[in-house]
Amino acid sequence: MKRLVLVLALAVAAVQWPLWMGAGGRLKVLALERELAERQAANDQLRERNRALGFEIASLRQGSEAIEERARADLHMMRPDETFFQWRPSGEPALARGE
Length: 99
Hints:
3 helices
């Protein structure tokens, strides 16, 4: 009787092993589901970034105001009749010329 129980236990273990540890086993499926969730989150972030860039491209194509705003913010460009003032929070060191 003990041998029969042992043989049956080994048979159950032999059947269960591929289900849990095999190439398409449950542990592999769980790892793949985790990886899929991470990639979907990364894709969502990239989709949002692409959407924002699309809006920016459309804005740049539609009018010169967006181009002017971009030039002022990124390149610090000014019109000839403008005076540029830059405010720094107190305690922040002044930048030397050329930096």
